[in-house]
Amino acid sequence: MLTKVMKNLFSIGILLLILTVEFIDAILDRQQQLSFLNEHNRFRELAYPTASRMLYLIWREHLAQYAEREANELCYIVHQTDTVWYIKMGDSWLSYQTTENVLPTAWQIVDAWHSTGRSYRSTGACSGENTNCQPYLQIMSDKLDSLGCAYYLCHGVHTFVCYYSHKAAVHGSRVYAVGEPCSACPNSLPLCLNNLCIDKMIVRDPTVPVYKGSDSSQRPFCTRDCETCEQRLIGQCRRCDCSNGGTRRPEATPSNCRCTCPIGYFGRQCQVTLARYKNSVALRLGVRGPGKLSMSLRTKTRSTFLPI
């Protein structure tokens, strides 16, 4: 009796091992999440013609959970095809499935989706042999503001799914508004980073890369002092430059610029020459009471009050 029980337990263990190997619901780690996110944003910032309100995408965990559910269901749909990879899409999601032993990178997956829009970029609509440019429309829609992605393995098929905040545009309609980059950003995203509309929270995120065109090998990071950030809206993110040999204080920010000035200069940015200030005359008008005005003259030696 004991031997029979042991055999049953052994059989159950083998079955569980097979299931564990055959079905893997892998959670993307933070670096993988950033890879998918950054590749989407890289293609969006390179939109041509340029987009007037292309939004910077952020990661949403609930969208990643939706993507995980879709990846699980797609696992059981085995495509009969001569190719080793294939694309499928749903209402607000895209998938990439492959039977290759070497897993594709996030760039390869997003590039495959983006490549479906070759004819769209030249005509403004799906045309010719490439009528299924819906994946391109999905990742380049200027209505998107977030996404989440997941991975699932079963029966030797690797399935990647990204779920999006909004559904793509339909065939025949423009995927985004064309115009000067960031010229029509919504009020909630008033800043501009490499042609993408962003907000102050994104500026402060040290993981947000500043891309240099299509070259992904060098990606300096955007810092909150904005010195390494490009193409921001005028006046929204000012530099903190010190004049006349001054040095910026450690606590200084673009909105509260403070400099340590050399002898002979003062002001927030050392922009005032002390000798010139001492030899200056200031005229100030004021109100002393109902119907009464006052005027004061200020020089380097004295102030004179003159009633008017």
TrEMBL record:
Entries under CDD domains matching the protein:
CAP_euk (cd05380)
User: The SCP domain covers which part of the protein?
Assistant: 31-172
InterPro entries, from UniProt? CAP_dom, CAP_sf, CRISP-related
Pfam families assigned: CAP
Q: Which PANTHER family match?
A: CYSTEINE-RICH SECRETORY PROTEIN-RELATED (PTHR10334)
User: Per its record, how is this protein called by name?
Assistant: SCP domain-containing protein
